[in-house]
Amino acid sequence: MRILVVGAGATGGYFGTRLAQAGRDVTFLVRPRRAVTLRERGLRIIGLGEEEVITPQLVTADELSSPYDLVLLSVKATTLEQAIEDAAPAIGPKTAIVPFLNGMAHLDQLNARFGARPVLGGVAKILTTVNDDGDIVRLAPLATLTIGEQDGRPSPRVDAVHALLDDAGIDASVSTDIVAAMWHKWVFITTVGALTCLMRGTVGDVGAVPGGSGLGPAILAEAAAVSAAAGFPVPEAELATTTSIVTRSGSPFASSMYRDVMSGRPTEVEHVFGDFVTRASALSVATPLLDLATLNLRVHEHRTEQAALERA
Ligand SMILES: NC(=O)C1=CN([C@@H]2O[C@H](COP(=O)(O)OP(=O)(O)OC[C@H]3O[C@@H](n4cnc5c(N)ncnc54)[C@H](OP(=O)(O)O)[C@@H]3O)[C@@H](O)[C@H]2O)C=CC1
Ligand SMILES: CC(C)(CO)C(=O)C(=O)O
């Protein structure tokens, strides 16, 4: 199976490396600057007391000519439009696309561009980031992938991709309701994202101050109400798990969006938050805390854009 990983960043770099280490035929579609770094340093995964490096097979958009069997889409929403166009030559009649993005709107974008047939749903749960050297840093052991057909039916191609991931030692599972799984992850990411970005602190930082421990559950209640109104109620057990994650005393846990904010990088605010509160409003669900988080992140985004313009 020929595999193309679109984007060799925190998520794609990690999962693509695992597949390459297992001897799979993996190519990373990268932009020219990333290609330079990866040719110089290799694709390195560090953290949790380990350091691994591979010499990745790379391709840039101008070199991409023939279809791949599997495309793992691991760019941020902010660069999705261009990435879809760049990856288009890799999508043929038999290609399956698995997106790792948080949020939901990318499914519509992919369906609109390629038709729904090649597009699977995907949920990535992993804590990784890219450091200044371009290496992928693992922040915690969590690294799972869930995949499934958008319409939930069992399919040989989903089983084949699952087997491929599993054989590479990736903790992968198949969902017969991947759209619900994506919504549930969306609830999780908006909750943790709003909590840590609004408070500019980790879960532990927020919980350490009087009144802090109530905020996570309050945001979760809003987000879960939206998901339920959209037809995807979050199971009680998952709500309980998320509640314990966002209230755990001393926890260093934070979302990747928090790390983006703290590093002055752009965020996926419109894809992850803007779209969520727009849908909440259309469903007549009040989301005052999520609205505030959205506004807060939009201010960050505006400031980041202004700074980039001044540098240019
Ligand atoms: N990091 C995490 O812990 C998690 C992230 N997610 C989600 O996964 C998605 C991806 O995030 P993440 O991996 O962290 O993002 P990163 O920014 O770390 O990686 C994205 C990569 O995509 C590359 N890229 C962008 N456009 C193109 C293009 N046209 N062609 C080739 N490469 C391109 C970027 O390259 P360049 O270097 O050139 O900018 C970058 O290396 C997001 O939606 C995020 O919310 C989900 C779970 C966990
Ligand atoms: C919350 C987490 C780490 C789960 O994968 C995530 O998706 C993110 O930070 O973007």
From TrEMBL:
Residues 3-150 form the Ketopantoate reductase N-terminal domain. Pfam families: ApbA (PF02558), ApbA_C (PF08546). This is 2-dehydropantoate 2-reductase. Keywords: NADP, Oxidoreductase, Pantothenate biosynthesis. Its EC number is 1.1.1.169. The keyword Metal-binding does not apply. Catalyzes the NADPH-dependent reduction of ketopantoate into pantoic acid. Pathway: Cofactor biosynthesis; (R)-pantothenate biosynthesis; (R)-pantoate from 3-methyl-2-oxobutanoate: step 2/2.
